[in-house]
Amino acid sequence: MGLANARIVGLGHHLPEKVVTNEDLTRLMDTTDEWIQQRTGIRERRYVEGETGAADLGAAAAREALDRAALNADQIDLILFATLSPDYDFPASACVLSRLLGVAGTPALDVRNQCSGFVYGLATADAFIRTGRARRVLLVGGEVHSTGIDLTTRGRDVAVIFGDGAAAAVLAAERDPQRGVLSTHLHAEGKYAEKLWLEAATSRARPRLTREMLEGSKPRIFPYMDGKYVFKHAVTRFSEVITEALAANGYSVKDLDLLIPHQANLRISQLVAMGFELGEDRVFNNIERYGNTTATSIPLALYEAEEEGRVKPGSLVCLAAFGAGFTWASALIRW
Amino acid sequence: MPKIVGMGYFLPSRRVDNRDLAEDLGLSAAEIQRRTGVRSRHYAEQGIGPSDLACRAAKIALAEAGLTSQDVEFLIFATMTPDVAFPGSGCYLQEKLGCGTVGALDLRAQCCGFLFALEVAEQFVRAGKYRRVLVAAAEVHSSGLDFSPSGAEVTPLFGDGGATVLLDGEGEGLLASAIHTDATRFEQFWCEFPTSRRPPARFLSADLPLGRHYPHLDAASVRHDGAVHIRAAIEEVLSNSGIQKQRVTRFFVQHVFRDAAFAALDALGVLDRATVGGEDEGHVAAASLPIALCRARERDQVNSGDIVCLATAGAGMNRAAALLRL
User: Fold this and answer.
1) Between chain B's N and C termini, which has fewer beta carbons within 10 Å?
2) Chain B interface, mutation test: which of A20, A49, A95, A152, most B Cβ atoms within 10 Å?
3) Could you tell me if B9 and B294 are in contact, meaning their C-beta atoms sit under 8 angstroms apart?
4) Which residues of B touch A201 (CB under 8 A)?
């Protein structure tokens, strides 16, 4: 029996209604619209309201993806949820999602690979489909960052970047070896774990959560980023992993119809595109509207790219990610 | 079908018996023993995370396989008590072990984490993506428990430890597996905080006295469902493989309540050749089953060529089983 590729047969998304502009942030912290746009390209992002978790956003995105795939949730064999802002300490947000979708029995697990989470999840889904262990996989990226960032001047370097949202993909077996996920490439380098990280809660501290961690002058309950360091590594690793995906399939940059980079920072995407001499028509960016939505950003961009007709049957699409870990990853897809 | 070519486990040196816990928890040592079936467990020291425990275990697994960290093509790490909120413990392990820039996937499947990770690893290997995959499972529970009388029900159940197995695509070892989630009543066994669902912040100082950042267990239903789910998982994996239970040399069953594991084994009629982990380790969630398997090998209870069954049920609520030829 020949192995089947995994192919994305339905995409969905869900964004909270509340739009938070850079101007809105200037009322919470000492920053300016100009500063944020110049460094990140971000104009606005979405924040949840009330008690809304990653799984709530993910469930709405998943329903749309299932509708578009003309499938019911109970026809899914495996549920993967990529997030770094889970609903609870445990269980996994995938469990919460599966209950919201009304399924029981389907294995559900979280992929915790930060900004690379969607591509790590895609590689996992692809492996299950290739071996025939699963026929259909639901892969969701969902994040609620807004409850975990320091929305004061102290936290502005990180806080202005992140936004909330979810997007989902349904993957199914594709017999045509020329279509679907052609290859995936996963990397990590834990040496730089603490260049972009969120320490607390941390099982290596006894106890994991203390008043000092929460209230000290540098609260350890908020993410930290060495921006310049991350920026430099991101440009290098994005470029490497895109080249790796193309080379593995005997393609070059000229064959590529669309690059969808993880939306970390518009300036990173622009530098990567410039390095490959890719014009704006062959790189998809939407960070200006949503900020960095970590595990959500790639499927959200893919969703919009398909809506806009920039991804069509036959398109050669490269997904690429870089983020905390460091982790980085790519996937080459024939749509 | 890949095969496990090396395995190892590591328990922190600090051993904590029931007398050590009795006063803080307001229970006698005998009462803790009666309620949990746990005699002692191990606790990691300050500064030690699951990646440290997994690293010690991984070195043993690699040595058994006659391989080095350079031979590992991919890492999968299962834990419910990660070193830090992010990045994942897999990234830390990758660095501590020295595996270059190979991928490190971090999974969350709670108590069933090892068997979920093994199933994921198997697919990567069978799909031809990687030949050698290191599967790590490790937990440091002790830093997240309530050492006051309000923790008396839950705290003595848990312990710290880590284990890893190295999977090689050359060989036939994984015979069958089954993994399931039924989250209908996940609040039976959960830890709510920190929670990204809670505005304006996931965790505040005012939350500390509330104790919602400690695991919660609805003992009666978790115990009852655990026995049912473990039995179902074992029956499923036997049925899928076509292997009769008589051919299984040993059953390794793990549950946070050891009596639920015994009940499942009794119902299946295989108590005479079963290992229920935790008596000297407590519940080490994802790491429990591979620790029990490693310890049984040390005692020559299982040998190369034997067919063993691993099964567990836990938070999620998840259940999982696997049949392996050692």
Assistant:
1) N
2) A95
3) yes
4) 85, 144, 194, 203, 213
